[in-house]
UniProtKB/TrEMBL annotation:
Example GO molecular function: flavin adenine dinucleotide binding
Protein name: FAD dependent oxidoreductase
Keywords: Oxidoreductase
PANTHER family: FLAVIN-BINDING MONOOXYGENASE-LIKE PROTEIN (AFU_ORTHOLOGUE AFUA_4G09220), FLAVIN-CONTAINING MONOOXYGENASE
């Protein structure tokens, strides 16, 4: 492919921590490239987090390439402003060649090899493409939301900021994954009446036997386990994250305790009919399942401690102190006092702009450690791309370095082929 002012060896789609990490290694390798960002770099961290947001993993796991956490609280949990400051330092260090406000509208392969990239700021070409835009693109909001009264304010988790920004009245939080559980806690601590539709998300302890559970799991090499060695294999990518919090120095999130303090818990929200909300009769099962995961993780730590003869404080099993007295499956909106709803049921990927035969029936790309079978096409920053940390600060460096090494190998092989043809 001929070289033009709009041609690059590599184009990276996405200017979050994944795209910037890749740029760090591409610069080290001396490979010309361009990072295309729809908004501004690390935009999501700045605009789609609530005011009290903080990391759920300890600061020592912030290990972006060439830029590890250097603060004085490695076992603490950075708050939103501190996360942004950390990212700002990384951005300044990398000095990535980024074109901001460049929405990628189409990526297609060319007959002669390589790719054409159409954006809101013009057309570019590249020998290789790395998609580093993450996997959380389109907020999931069920169609039943269309039938809710106009008087009820609705928002998705990425739009929530704080309790004071919501109208008076009770708040229905739908979903109990990381965002749902933490937003429900934020509202509860602010004194708001919360109705929580509890899903099937698992939970884990914050601290156990004298240490953060993350520290134990790191010693147990859990974060180094590749997806193809996980008991669920690629199925682990569909798992909901465990709910826990780093707020106020870190603690468990115990929905049963919240319920004993006045939070109203229901099972999974299923439908809305004639102003009546309908819930699945699975609240008890969901709470029991979450507690089961909590205790199994701790039991694994117990086994590790015993096997290695580690001298530490004793453990124990979580025993619930609150149970639903019955499964409530309906809630009449009129009279419930609910004035707002926060949807916390996740996102779906949207790679509709990428014209390449690499996707499964759910729109997720098939790859091995980010490398697809389509020549020159890679993915980075997806959950469990390779390990648990692939979509997080802790594991992105390892994945980015691997992809750049693969790109370098491809370029070397191509150069050898050209030399052989011209010899």
């Amino acid at each position: 492919m001929s070289q033009t002012s709009n041609h690059y060896s590599v184009i990276v789609v996405g200017g979050g921590q994944a795209g910037l990490s890749l740029s760090y290694y591409l610069k080290q390798a001396g490979i010309d490239h361009l990072v295309l960002e729809k908004n501004t770099v690390t935009h999501t961290w700045r605009t789609q987090r609530w005011d009290a947001f903080c990391l759920v993993t300890p600061n020592w796991q912030c290990a972006l390439p060439g830029y590890p956490y250097r603060g004085d609280d490695p076992h603490g949990f950075m708050k939103k402003d501190e996360i942004i400051a950390y990212l700002d330092g990384f951005i300044e260090m990398v000095e990535a060649p980024v074109l901001e406000h460049a929405e990628v509208r189409r990526v297609s392969s060319t007959d002669g090899g390589g790719f054409t990239v159409s954006t809101s700021q013009g057309t570019f070409t590249a020998d290789q493409i790395v998609v580093a835009s993450g996997g959380y693109h389109t907020p999931i909001v069920p169609r039943m939301a269309e039938r809710l009264p106009a008087s009820i304010v609705q928002m998705q988790s990425s739009e929530y900021r704080n309790a004071d920004a919501l109208p008076e009245g009770a708040v229905l939080v739908v979903g109990s994954g990381q965002s749902g559980a933490q937003i429900a806690e934020d509202l509860h601590l602010a004194g708001r009446k919360v109705v929580l539709a509890v899903g099937e998300a698992p939970r884990c302890a914050r601290f156990y036997r004298g240490r953060d559970v993350v520290d134990w799991l790191a010693d147990m090499k859990y974060y180094d386990m590749p997806v193809d060695q996980h008991p669920l294999r690629e199925g682990v990518r569909d798992n909901t994250n465990h709910y826990v919090t780093g707020r106020d120095g870190g603690r468990d999130i115990d929905l049963r305790r919240f319920a004993s303090e006045g939070m109203e818990l229901y099972g999974r929200l299923e439908d809305l009919q004639d102003s009546v909300l309908h819930f699945a009769p699975n609240l008890a099962a969901n709470l029991d399942s979450a507690d089961g995961v909590y205790n199994r993780i701790n039991a694994g730590i117990d086994a590790f401690i015993e096997k290695n003869g580690i001298d530490t404080e004793g453990g124990g099993v979580y025993e619930p102190r609150w149970w639903p007295d019955r499964e409530r499956t309906t809630l009449e909106l009129q009279g419930s006092g609910i004035g707002s709803i926060v949807w916390c049921i996740g996102f779906t990927p949207d790679f509709s702009w990428l014209d390449a035969p690499v996707f499964n029936g759910r729109g997720y790309p098939a790859h091995r450690r980010g490398v697809t079978q389509f020549p020159g096409l890679y993915f980075l920053g997806l959950p469990w791309l390779h390990t648990w940390g692939s979509g997080r600060f802790s594991g992105i460096a390892r994945d980015a370095e691997h992809i750049v090494k693969t790109i370098c190998s491809t370029r070397e092989a191509s150069a050898v082929s050209v030399d052989a043809l011209t010899a």
